[in-house]
Design a protein that fits this description.
heterodimer; A: mainly beta; 7-stranded mixed beta sheet; 4-stranded antiparallel beta sheet; B: mainly beta; 6-stranded mixed beta sheet; globular
Amino acid sequence: DAGITQSPRYKITETGRQVTLMCHQTWSHSYMFWYRQDLGHGLRLIYYSAAADITDKGEVPDGYVVSRSKTENFPLTLESATRSQTSVYFCASSSSPTDTQYFGPGTRLTVL
Amino acid sequence: AQSVSQHNHHVILSEAASLELGCNYSYGGTVNLFWYVQYPGQHLQLLLKYFSGDPLVKGIKGFEAEFIKSKFSFNLRKPSVQWSDTAEYFCAVIFGSSNTGKLIFGQGTTLQVKP
């Protein structure tokens, strides 16, 4: 019963490099979300997806790209990493738009 | 703009003290309300939620919250905290009849319980 997993758990990269963070859920939830957590800001929504091949921007989408070719996977790509993208990234999923979101363990990303 | 405010950023309590964490939101319409907890080094876990019905909601680990519509508030309470309650607490809201599931989070409150 894996639930929702994220990989890698920790990542250090350099400015300008492309980075992909993976998210996988085993519940067949339709909705998936990416958040970033920064001190003083709580969690902010980056992108969300209502189903495979349906994605939309959240509060802070600039510099990020998502895709969702399969229901269970929702990768987040930083096309050209910047230091301001140093953060902890959480993936979440839910069965409906108003229901409880279940969170993954997070990925701590450091951009040097 | 839709927003969620948590007024207590850092709370320090002794074991057995009572806890109340404030949460206010900016919108006057339909809301779905959540409290999540993040223990040190762990992911977010749901403490409790309110969608409709009895405005006093009971969650896990002895926590409860009260929805007061007139005050746009959803404060979290626990009558007697334990050292193991040391964590960060987040209030979160889905506004209106959202078909997107966009959760708006408060800034979080760090609770430190001294043994």
